[in-house]
Amino acid sequence: MKKPESNRSILLGAAFLMATSAVGPGFLTQTTTFTQTLAASFGFVILISIIIDIGVQMNIWRIITVSGKRAQEIANEVLPGLGIFLAALVVLGGLAFNIGNIGGAGLGTNVLFGVSPEMGALFSGLIAIGIFLVREAARIMDRFIQVLGFLMIGLTVFVMFQSQPPVGEAIIRSFIPETLDFLAIVTLVGGTVGGYITFAGGHRLLDAGLSGMKNIPEVNKSAVSAIGLASIIRIFLFLATLGVVAQGLDINPENPPASVFQLAAGNIGYKIFGVVMWSAAISSVIGAAYTSVSFIKTFSPVLAKYEKFLIVGFITVSTAIFTSIGQPVTLLILAGALNGLILPISLGVILLAAHNKKIVGEYNHPKWLTGFGILIVVVMAYLGGYTMINQLPELFS
Predict the structure, then answer these.
(1) At a CB cut-off of 8 Å and minimum separation 6, what does 74 contact?
(2) What domain range is 41 assigned to?
(3) Contact partners, residue 295, CB within 8 Å, separation at least 6
(4) For the domain that residue 242 is a member of, what is the CATH number?
(5) Eight-state DSSP code of residue 134
């Protein structure tokens, strides 16, 4: 049996893994872009997304922990072949996210060195591959990213105070919005708990040997903490951007989050943001590639044997697609939206497993969590279908 201190470390690690997977370049770009278009009413979108995120996270993490199985293994027990289908969806969403992350790295190098986002993305893709192949460098990079993560939080809080946002209006519009945007809701939920992201922490718990009903209370706390951490950063960034928007300043559409930091904190803030953006993007590239490949490597010993080459190939394809297409801001929003479309399917599979005694044994899933989960599946399926038909095409028009 693991010592309590060991369990706390594992649970905290899972929470941070999920939160840092969510808080990447797409997260920053989506938040600033939608704040610019929705103003204070974006607070309502954040509130709704937080509620949905908690429901998704608690359902998925509990079932993974109780069953002691990864998501694709659970899906295959629900229905033979369903795990392969789920893995394909997650890999597709992970690829979309990785293309967006590569684009974020390109935006970061554009801020720092003035090179084109496409050229910066190509350089960053090569760096990401090198970081993965050299394990010691990856370990050093992980430490470096943690430091920059705290720097990003600190800088965002600083920018929030500098921009002097209308906090009172933000609070009111968080409950009584003037404008509703389904694409914003789908994108935020997809960018926080969609696709591979919500499974990253749950799988981390299994890798650390933490499973079983006895750990449910701690898993609940870890799941909520992960959403809380990501949400706090989202709120700070929303308020910082809202302050800039309220002043009537023009935000650069080619790099919205960097523009916000520059307008509020000057050129130093702009350059520091470039470092944080690039570092967060590289971290997300590696995390998305690794987690996506983990969904397919269990299907064959051959895939497991060549896992490293699959990850390198995943990063290479992501980089090639971005450098061919460009449009980093559009891709970062699209990535979140695609993962929002995957969410109803992945959560639906987990809810079916929650009441299958062959998978969960004697565990009884709370009725309120099941009902909440079903509501989320229905709402996200509707919103996802609506945005696919009516709003996503406008991104490329």
Answers:
(1) 63, 64, 67, 83, 349, 350, 353, 359
(2) 4-395
(3) 70, 71, 72, 86, 87, 90, 91, 94, 196, 199
(4) 1.20.1740.10
(5) S
CA distance 57 to 199: 9
pLDDT band at 138 (very low <50, low <70, confident <90, very high): very low
pLDDT band at 368 (very low <50, low <70, confident <90, very high): very high
The tokens for 364 are: 């009884």
Three-class SS of residue 188? helix
The answer to whether residue 2 scores a pLDDT higher than 50 is no
> What digits encode the pLDDT tens for the residues 224-269?
888 887 888 888 888 988 988 888 888 888 778 888 888 887 888 8
Are the C-beta atoms of 315 and 77 separated by less than 8 Å?
no
In the block, tokens 């709120």 appear at 235
Q: What is the DSSP letter of 296?
A: T
Count how many domains the chain has.
1
Assigned token pair, 310: 């699959």
pTM: 0.78
Q: DSSP letters of 192-238?
A: HHSTTHHHHHHHHHHHTT--SGGGHHHHHHHHHHHHHHHHHHHHHHH
Residue 131 and residue 138 in contact, taking contact as beta carbons nearer than 8 Å: yes
Q: Where are the beta strands (DSSP E) in the chain?
A: none
Spatial contact of 313 and 116, defined as CB atoms under 8 Å apart: no
pLDDT tens-digit readout, 279-315: 778 777 877 887 788 788 777 788 877 777 888 888 8
